[in-house]
Amino acid sequence: MFGMPTHTMPRRFITTGSLNAARLQIATRQMSATEVVRNYLSGLRRLEPQLNSFIAVDVEHALSQAAAIDNQLAKGEEIGPLAGVVMGIKDNLCTQGLQTTAGSKELRGYVPPYDATAVARLRAAGAVVVGKTNMDEFGMGSSCENSGFQPTFNPWDTDRVPGGSSGGSAAAVAANQCIAALGSDTGGSIRQPASFCGVVGVKPTYGRVSRNGLVAYASSLDCVGPIAQTVADAAAVLSVIAGPDSADATCSQRPSEDFTEGLVPLEQLSSKPLAGRRLAVIQETSGEGVAEALAAAIKHLQELGAEVSLTCFGVGLPAYYVIALSEASSNLSRYDGVRYGQRAEADELRSMYGKTRHNGLGSEVARRILMGTYALSAGYYDAYYKRAQQASSQKGGALWYSCGEMPRPLVRTLVQREMGSALQQYDALLCPAAPTAAYRVGEKTSDPLAMYKGDLMTVNLNLAGLPAVCLPCGFAEQPSGGTLPVGMQMIGRAFGEGDLLQLAHIFEQTAAVMALRRPAVYFEA
Amino acid sequence: MGSAAAAAGGGVAASRQQPHCTFAAGGGMCRQRHRPHHRRWQQQQQQAVRYKAAYEAVIGIETHVQLGTKTKAFCSCASEFGAEPNSNVCPVCLGHPGTLPVLNGDMVHKAVLAGLALNARVSLESKFDRKQYFYPDLPKGYQISQYDVPLCEGGWVEVVVPPEQTGGQGVVRRIGVTRAHLEEDAGKLVHGGAASLSGSDYSLVDYNRAGVPLLEIVSEPDMRTGAEAAAYGAEIRRIMRFLGVSDGNMAEGSMRCDVNISVRPRGQAAFGTKVEIKNMNSFNAMQRAIDFEIARQVQLLEDGQAAAIVQETRLWDEGQQCTYSMRKKEGLADYRYFPEPDLPALVLNQAYLDEIQASMPELPRQVRERYLALGLSQYDVLVLSDERDVVAYFDAVLAAGAPPKPATNWVMGDVMAYCKEARLGWDALAERMAPTALAEMIGLIEDGTISGKIGKEVLPALLAGEGGSGSGVRAMVETRGLVQISDPAALAAIVDGVLSANPKQLQQYREGKPKLQGFFVGAVMKESKGRANPAELNRILMEQLNASPPA
């Protein structure tokens, strides 16, 4: 609480979080928006040398946005629900007038002529975009080490990675360089860095948030979602960015909701607020304190009255990579140096293409384009892409294994069916967002397969298109000393973000995992 | 498939060759270059005739029809032709990062209308796919098209191979349509310093055309001659124009035909090696290109150089009147098609199709049947049914009561000549001379009020709008004193006058110079100021001429 009696506040200010604190300060004129933004900008810049969270910062624009809000207030006008909320935007979301590279050197200097729908909605709600956060190039990576510009470091331990690909957003939010951020999640890119950095990440249902303006990695899997310091903050941001968009034909027609509405403040919770809720833990193999942290969280949920069972699913990882890389190989074709971005000099068209893409695209991106191109090639398409996508009666093949069973014939539809039927039985499914806590910088860079395996716990959800909230559930003691946050995914029914956020909020309030815990690198606003 | 094929493939600059006209294998030397073109052309024609009995060509056509929607296929940019380069562009059709396609509903409506008119099955559920290749005119590195589940499948068109091509009666044939699918167009390259890519210093790209909606219509390999292929192309264009879904303008690229052609000995079931020809901007050119290509391939077979016929794309050179190799196809191009994840499946319902079917205008084939039933000759039917506006005008003339045959003669004769001369469209014509006015005039001729000759004299006044909606035509001819003289007494008086004024000629006639009959006809017509009823006049004149001279 902010030291003010709750009954005088609008309902949306009932929980803690920098977002609401800042908005409240501005709304009650304790601070002007300009002061809030200046304050955050100074913190951002002070911590940036240690973290490298941002690729671009737009001070001038941020201050003019803040001035506009102060102007609105001076005139007695209504301010937006996110007025003065300082936000970072993952660099794969287009921002009009502000460089957008998706972490790729190929797009250095590219300034989009339009705002991504999610960004435009944030701006309309009064949010102040301070800059673009670092990421693995085109979202291809799980550590932010594949950025074309710089690695980002974990605020809890700067020898460690922040996760990826939305690592810049997660690190910036964890260190309070900004109040909240947008990320994108194709195979875990919001949830895994949220887990590594001890913040809340929401991967919405596919189609819940418009993809318009999101630099495409794998179109049928990509989702835009918030990363924030608290569940309530994430809910407030999601409420603004969700909803139908005529610019995205795959976006759902379902209207957005006020996701903060269902959040119940701690003092109003009963002793068994989860009585009657049925949860299932997805059996996974995890180590280094992750299993313990999850076990403690599950115990806590049971104490709140939830009924917790065990379940298991097949492994969608191979199918995920076939689909993601196939689509990526196509989506990245447009970076040819002809219309925008960097162009290499050459005597002839083919060499211009070759040099441009060789110079501009990193090795991990090149590897994924090659694999995707291979999977879509004549003679391989049926064996890979088609089988990964659809149910088939064909036997054999290793794109899909179900736990405890013989290898089954593949696919995305199977994942959807399995998870869908489990969610008819349970209110939510629980599992870690990653097998380990944040690993050391450089630890996995030489082994791409080890990096891919780290996505094991997150990709099924993208194949199924379901929503999840990832939030801190505990800490893992490191053998080398120090503790690192561990995140837990709560997976819900399609378009069930409201229920999920409510559940996550109850856990967050009652378990108080983050109480008195701050990252080593942190800006006290 | 796809307009894009020209752009695909390796080593674009290196593989293009200079045009050459020779039957020598593939890219051989231009041995016959010094000889006059028309002689070479003649020789080729003779060869073609000689081998016609022994060989058969198999021809299939891929037609790209630009659908005349206001905006592009997947964004809201205008799809008009001729705008300032790169003025009708936006982040979506330029393939900017993060942009997504949104399907144009009017494109689907027009394609469904076209599909139904092609007698095809329209799928209630089809999907879009990405066809992938790199070329500077293709902004996204892929073209959104339809691959394995097209919008329309299994249709046919009836074509009439015109009489002048078959010597006598036109032959009616049904050509199968394999499929018709939706796709987007690519941009246009403009090569600086040269007419083509080879030799140019730089190339500029105009993306105005990028994303313009196309319907690709793929025919069965049902055609055997250039004339059939040209008739097929013309019928497709006619159908699209009757439907109002495309202007079919080949010069502006809103209709493009790629011809696939192979030759085999008659009686052989297997197809020969297929060659693709592009770059023909009229049906006439298409026919000549095909006839050239048939002759070229037959000659190679005759010379024992069958291996020299290779899978390749050849361009028609209008100046040289020959095809030349643009690009060899090394194996099958792999476009790595896969379903477009940015667009949901295209799902239509039966009510939508029914509604479009109900709105179907009369099609060229139906017009032809209707006109043939009126007793018009096939030639007249083909001329009249060629354009929708002519049909509309002619039908309005008929509806106003004009009998078909004279209406045909007037519309196809003086009126059509006038329109050509004045470069006037038929809708504009209707504003000057209402079809009812023409019908009224035809009526006056038919009932003998005026002669056909007077009709021709009256026509300019009608074309100047003096006939109004038709009711003023009779008054006009009356006030101008143009009404035909049919009264035998009046005609006899005129004849008498002429005979007595020319006693010398009369005497010569009666002494055995029957050729002077024409002189008297002319003189009498002149005297009547052209108003004499010719039949009646002739009868009376002959009567008087042949009467015994008064004693």
Automatic annotation (TrEMBL), chain A:
Query: Where do transmembrane segments lie in this chain?
Result: none
Which reaction is the catalytic activity of this chain? Answer: L-glutamyl-tRNA(Gln) + L-glutamine + ATP + H2O = L-glutaminyl-tRNA(Gln) + L-glutamate + ADP + phosphate + H(+)
Signal peptide feature range: none
One GO MF term, please? ATP binding
Q: Which domain of life is it from?
A: Eukaryota
Q: What Enzyme Commission number(s) does the record list for this chain? A: 6.3.5.7
Subcellular localization: Mitochondrion; Plastid, Chloroplast stroma
What does the record give as the organism's lineage?
Answer: Eukaryota, Viridiplantae, Chlorophyta, core chlorophytes, Trebouxiophyceae
Against InterPro entries, the record matches this protein to: Amidase, Amidase_CS, Amidase_dom, AS_sf, GatA
Per the Swiss-Prot or TrEMBL record, the active site comprises: 90 (charge relay system), 165 (charge relay system), 189 (acyl-ester intermediate)
Which GO cellular component terms are attached?
A: chloroplast stroma; glutamyl-tRNA(Gln) amidotransferase complex; mitochondrion
Q: What is this protein called?
A: Glutamyl-tRNA(Gln) amidotransferase subunit A, chloroplastic/mitochondrial
Q: Where is the Amidase domain?
A: 35-392, 411-501
Miscellaneous note, as given in the UniProt record, is: This protein may be expected to contain an N-terminal transit peptide but none has been predicted.
Similarity comment: Belongs to the amidase family. GatA subfamily.
Q: What exactly does this protein do? A: Allows the formation of correctly charged Gln-tRNA(Gln) through the transamidation of misacylated Glu-tRNA(Gln) in chloroplasts and mitochondria. The reaction takes place in the presence of glutamine and ATP through an activated gamma-phospho-Glu-tRNA(Gln).
One GO biological-process annotation of the entry reads: glutaminyl-tRNAGln biosynthesis via transamidation
> What binding partners and quaternary form does the record give?
Subunit of the heterotrimeric GatCAB amidotransferase (AdT) complex, composed of A, B and C subunits.
From TrEMBL, chain B:
Ranges annotated as biased composition (Basic residues): 31-41
Region named Disordered: 26-45
Q: Some GO term, biological process aspect, for this entry: which one?
A: glutaminyl-tRNAGln biosynthesis via transamidation
Q: Which UniProt keywords apply?
A: ATP-binding, Chloroplast, Ligase, Mitochondrion, Nucleotide-binding, Plastid, Protein biosynthesis
- Where does the record place it? Mitochondrion; Plastid, Chloroplast
UniProt cross-references to SUPFAM superfamilies, sorted A to Z: GatB/YqeY motif (SSF89095), Glutamine synthetase/guanido kinase (SSF55931)
Chief location: mitochondrion
The name of this protein is: Glutamyl-tRNA(Gln) amidotransferase subunit B, chloroplastic/mitochondrial
Q: Which organism is it from?
A: Chlorella variabilis
